[in-house]
Amino acid sequence: GTGPRLHGSGDGQGGLQQRVQGQDRRPEVAAQGPRPGFPQHILPQLIVVDGGKGQLSSAVEALDEIGLRGKIALVGIAKRLEEIYFPGDSVPLYIDKNSESLKVVQHLRDEAHRFGITHHRNRRSKTQIVSELSTIPGIGPATEQALLSRFKSVKRISAATLDALAEVVGPAKARLIRDHFARP
Predict the structure, then answer these.
(1) How far is residue 74's CA from residue 159's CA, in Å, rounded to a whole number?
(2) pLDDT digits over 27-69, tens only?
(3) What strand order describes the sheet that includes 89-94?
(4) Is 72:63 a contact under the CB 8 Å cutoff?
(5) CA triplet 88, 94, 96: central angle to 5 degrees?
(6) Is the CB of residue 151 less than 8 Å from the CB of residue 157?
(7) Cα separation of 64 and 17, whole Å?
(8) Are 105 and 84 in contact (CB under 8 A)?
(9) pTM
(10) In 10 A of CB 143, how many CB atoms?
């Protein structure tokens, strides 16, 4: 896409607006209300956009729409790392390839990519976990949730004793789960 990308959203501007306002469109998250420990009035001091002029202008527009333009510093880091764009300035700031500043910007970029990769890997992993558990006849979404809350992963569920499983889901469902994971 052309807009800024944020984790948890395929819609750049909408995603930026949600993240800045601390909102989430997923019904199960929205129903929980404001996140504990994250006061809604606290805003980031800086938003770093992964992209050049186009992505930065989309981010500026999104901040404008929610009345936060000028209240949060915003920069765009172009693919060629030595270029940093600022809102309203079509000429980028060029950073010397040997400077300490460039090392800080590279670290920022690397950390953002690491976070993004880890986040998406975890999302895929959770989807696969739910898919495997949902293939067991007699195990529904509530049971899946109870198992994941207690054991945290399918690997731990598959390694759990019959008694440990029975504590969470009862003896009948525990046997279904043990039988499923005992198959070669």
Answers:
(1) 48
(2) 554 455 445 554 556 778 888 877 778 888 888 888 888 888 8
(3) 46-50, 73-77, 83-86, 89-94
(4) yes
(5) 155
(6) yes
(7) 10
(8) yes
(9) 0.46
(10) 19
